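Record 1 of the preview.
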Amino acid sequence: MISKGISLAVAFALAATLASAAVLRNDRWTAEQTEALRALSLTELEPLPADPTNRVADDPRAVELGHRLFFDVRLSSNDQVSCATCHRPEREFQDGTPLAAGVGTTNRRTMPVAGTAYAPFLFWDGRKDSLWAQALGPLESAVEHGGTRAQYAHVIAGQYRSDYERLFGPLPDLTSVPRHAGPVPDPAAANAWKALPEEQRLAVTSVYVNIGKAIAAYERRLQPAPSRFDHYVSAIGPNGQAPQGILTSDETAGLRLFIGKANCTQCHNGPLFTNNEFHNTGVPANATLPPDRGRLTGATDVLKDEFNCRSRWSDATPAQCAELEFLATGAHEQERAFKVPSLRNVAERAPYMHAGQLATLANVVAHYNLAPSAPGGHSELKPLKLTPRELRQLEAFLRSLSGGTQAPPELLRAPTGR
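->
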């Protein structure tokens, strides 16, 4: 009996020692892990990069004008659609739908705006290389704003003349320019555009471009706000001691998986949790939509874009357009490769993927865990072999990245007054 009692005591003592060691390991981060966590914190985000393509990118007058234009439904064919229709401030500047809906329905999911000033290429396929060029695309899209550049120039002349001219100089004479004219699919508007002298087309386009540059100045002010994850990282002790009461045990376990076994930081790295690159992750196709080849077409499109960094409308010098200079096209790995989105506020942005194919965060982590074959091209994923508990922990951590959008309060809502 004594021998048995001693054995039980030893067993319990050993168990307690092992448990204490486990707690110690979970309560501390190694120096290498701490460095990895700090690299993900917003405190490490570099200052807002300059945009050499947009000379008014940091002009407060452009921010004010862009703010008003962002919410103006007159920049649409039916006076009902604004940028904020899909990029809703109360929804982290996205719309919560699988496919964006303006005057019609698009083939892709609305992307968030916060932090996009750091991205060299925009849209899911990277077909634009600046915020202002990105802003122009939807304005003439038949299923988004559905209008024309001549229409928008007339809106500026009628509603924003003084603000515009203080920023960009005198507006051109639009007296002989029809209200609906532009290089768009609508035959009447396209023919009206072709009938204009080249000098007038260039004058109207200059106004159109400046609309995009003002909107971009506003969007540059929208940045992700610190989340519980950031507060957690800031509170890590000098010896790697984990702070208490900020993240739950499941969230902390999920964080360990995120930077470790799950290998999420291969693509979702840096303070914005994105490498701003394009990857094929085997996302299922939407059978109701046309085939989408992602970056394979986007890389070609940006090189021939009317408004890219090397265009006459850019304020950059050719030497400042290195991203285009070294851009590869036609590469096999670009087939069905889509932009890596930021994971900041990801829990607030269901559904997920480029066409909203995955409804929940649980679906997303399950997809990465199983690593199914790609419907086109080659998926870069490999099965993670996470347990159901680990999947729940990883999802729990992703929810700790919600912090909202950071900007002056007046920029986070529709402008009032004027």
